[in-house]
Amino acid sequence: MDFKLLKKLCESHAVSGREEGIRKMIRDEFQKLGLDVSVDAMGNMTGFKKGTGKKKVMLAGHMDEIGFIVSHIDKEGFLRFQPCGGFDPRTLMSQRVYVHTAKKRLLGVMGTKPVHVLKEEEKKKSLEVTDYFVDLGLPATEVEKLVEIGDPITMARELDDLGDCLTGKSLDNRFGVWLMIEALKLVKKHSVNIYAVATTQEEVGLRGALAVSRDINPDVGLALDVTIAADIPGTPPQDHVTKVGGGACIKILDGSMISNPKIVRELKDVATKKKIPWQYEILPRGGTDGGAMRMVSGGCAVGAISVALRYVHSTVETAHKSDLEACVKLLAAYLESTSGSGYELDDRL
Description:
Elements: H1 3-10, H2 20-32, E1 36-39, E2 45-49, E3 56-62, E4 67-73, E5 79-84, E6 96-100, E7 105-111, H3 120-123, E8 133-135, H4 140-146, E9 152-155, E10 160-162, E11 165-168, H5 171-186, E12 193-199, H6 207-216, E13 220-228, E14 248-253, H7 261-273, E15 278-282, H8 290-293, E16 301-309, E17 317-320, H9 321-337
Parallel strand pairs: 3-12, 3-13, 13-16, 14-15
Antiparallel strand pairs: 1-2, 2-12, 4-5, 4-9, 6-7, 6-9, 7-8, 10-11, 11-17, 14-16
Helix pairs in contact: 1-5, 5-9, 7-9
C-alpha cells in the first residue's frame, strides 16, 4: 500500500470550503488511474470508471479537514477565528498552526491566557474555542499587510509512524480519498459504473456530498471515512465502538444513516470469503457522507467502510496500518463482485 501518498494527502491543507490546497493532488492521482475527471462549482471532484453494466456506485470520501477561518484582526495583530468543523477546545492548547494568505503561508501558535494570571473563577471554567487566538509573532502593521478576513487556518502537523500505526492530522478524512485511490488500483473487472468522489464541506454538514450525489443519482452509495475507536484506558469495552487493529469496519449505523442491511451482509460475506479482517461499527453520534447520499432517493442503497481511529478531530489521530490495508482490500473486492442491484428491502429478517 502507498502510505507515502497517504502522508502527502494528510500533510496537505484544505479546510471546508477552501479545498484548493489538495484538489490538484487528487486530480493527478485520478488521472494516473485513467479516470474521467470533473469538478463542480462546489469543488467536488469526481473520477469516473466505466463498467460493463448500467448500475452506478458512488464512493464518497471527503477531502476537507477541520480548521478555522480568520474572522478578526485586532490592533495588536492577534487573529480571532471562526471554526470550520467541530473542535474539542482541549486539543488546541499550545498547538502550531498555518495561516494561508494570498501572499504566503505563515506559521502561528494558538494562544490563550496563561494559568498564572487567571482568576480563581476562570480556572474552574472549561476552555472554549473563543478563548483562543493566533499569534503570528509579527507586528500588527505586518499582519494587516499579509492577512485578510476569510483566510483559512490549519493545524501544523506531519503524519508519522507510531509503532504499527500512523499518527497525525487529517486522517479524517484523507483516509477516505486514499482508500478509493488505492482500491481502484486493484480493481480489474467490474460491472458497475464507479463514481469516485472527493467531496467538499463534509465537516460543516455533508454539503458537497449532498449536491454531487443529486447530480450522479447513484444506485449504491458507499461512504469511506473514519470512525471512533475508544479502545483506550478508562473506557469500558461496550463503549469502544471499534478497535484499532481489529480490521476494516463495516458500518451498521451512525448518527446520519442506517446502512442497507443487504450491503452490510454483502460486505461481510466478501470480507469472510477473501479472509479480510473486519469488524462491525455502530456509531451512536456523528455522521458521514452516507447521510447525504441516502437523501437522494429511495432507490439509493447506502453503506460505509470505515477505519478505526483513535483521538479523532485532533492533531494526533491514530490508525493501524493493517486496518488501512484491510479497508483497501475490502473495497476493491466489493467493487469487483457487486452488481449494484438487489438491495430493495423485503419483509424477511
